[in-house]
Amino acid sequence: MNQRIGHWHVVVAEDDIYIAPAQGGADDMIAYVSEGDGRMEIAHLICVAPELLSELKLANQIIINALNTMTPEQKQAWDELNTRDGLKDGWALTRNTVREAIIARAEGRKR
Q1: Is-contact 98 56, C-beta < 8 A?
Q2: Which of 60, 71, 49, 66 lies closest to 100, judged by CA?
Q3: Which end of the chain is more exposed for a tag (fewer CB within 10 A), N or C?
Q4: Is the Cβ–Cβ distance between 16 and 43 less than 8 Å?
Q5: Where does 1-111 have alpha helices with state H?
Q6: Strands 16-21 and 2-5, how do they pair?
Q7: Is pLDDT above 70 for 91?
């Protein structure tokens, strides 16, 4: 089975799953997903990781921009909604530090 996901091909050969560039060949493989449950989901996640990182970076900036336009009262109301929905869990209002640390790790930077 050979499935194209974005710029990548997920190739299933017998019990093996390989990920290679859509324009490349088997020698250009970038990842091998070994045995275990959820292997295909992991392969798909690897393929869309660059898009997910891009969206996370955009969402981070959107949240920062929104915070910079809010009054203290609006920030408090947002905080209350997050707490009500179980999203706060002891973290700061926007989890900005967590997002920026994940972005840094995904880009290979220490944070």
Answers
A1: no
A2: 60
A3: N
A4: no
A5: 39-69, 72-84, 96-106
A6: unpaired
A7: no
